[in-house]
Design brief:
GTP Cyclohydrolase I, domain 2, 4-stranded antiparallel β-sheet, alpha+beta, 151 residues
Length: 151
Amino acid sequence: MTAKKGVKEERFADLTLLKRSENNYPSVPDEARLEVFKNLYSDRNYEITFDCPEFTSLCPVTSQPDFGHIIVNYIPDQLCVESKSLKLYLFSHRNSNTFHEEAVNSILNALVNACKPRWAEVIGNFRPRGGIAINVKASTGIKPDPGFVNK
């Protein structure tokens, strides 16, 4: 049992945010860090979806709050994103002045930089301001067929 515990501790050694009981939120995305862990099923394609219906950021012109629904879909390769670190990263946008298009693309860039997935997309459905809603979808790579593994 001790050997397995040691292996488990080693596997999760880099997951510092999940171990913390305090919630010291980063104030801007540049201060946030996406943490990753080894994908034990990298021999197959499977899709992971994160759903954040309470995303907020600030308008870069008026500094008024913008509200949106962010959906992150990706097919991992060697690494998976740890969900609490993603939550804190998304929360860090609350004080960030950004256009919706920039927010969605920067989230995609952060995901790709952190875990280098086989395929990824970020969808942002933003609430209307000034009578118009904005929906943004950014992706990278070509979504593989379910049975195809890119090695």
